[in-house]
């Protein structure tokens, strides 16, 4: 094991390189004694189908992460391509993200983003500190989906995600 403190890879190079990995865009919402909280994320993945688990990565000190851990519950709101303004709203720090939004609630008393492509209601299963992030594992206790096209994120910008048919794409020819 190396004892070097200088990173082998420049953090900005890492960010730019990982930006080549296309993701979806979601808003994590929760509510604690101080009220509703939410933030935009794209560092989200399914961990297990049986039992249903997912994980979300938050920057250390994110109020939404702290509120989700304190309350023990959160919702993953997967955004549609028409919800870029919602993604930007919840990405702004220090704002009242819910102002004028018209709160709707999931089954376990957590606010949801209206008209999102999907909602996944989660109970906090485990919290792990790793690098400059807090990883929150959620036990999925309820889901709700609707038809529509997802909002994508690629190269630091919003993008469209286009579905292909089931035939293989022979890009190597």
3D structure, described in words:
It is a single chain. The protein is mostly beta strands. It is 14% helix and 43% strand. The protein has three helices and twelve strands. It has helices spanning 11-18, 63-71, 84-91, and strands at 23-24, 26-32, 35-41, 44-49, 52-59, 73-78, 104-105, 111-112, 118-130, 133-145, 151-154, 157-160. Residues 18-160 form the Flavin reductase like domain.
Question: What is the count of distinct domains?
Answer: 1
Series of secondary-structure elements, N-terminal to C-terminal? HEEEEEHEHEEEEEE
- State the CATH superfamily name: Electron Transport, Fmn-binding Protein, Chain A
What is the strand content?
A: 35-45%
Q: Within the largest sheet, what's the order of strands?
A: 3-2-6-9-10-5-4
Query: Tell me, what is the CATH class?
Result: Mainly Beta
Number of helices: 3
Low-pLDDT runs: none
Would you tell me the overall average pLDDT? 88
Spatial separation of the terminal alpha carbons: 42 Å
Protein structure class: mainly beta
- E-strand count: 12
Shape: globular
Oligomer: single chain
CATH architecture: Roll
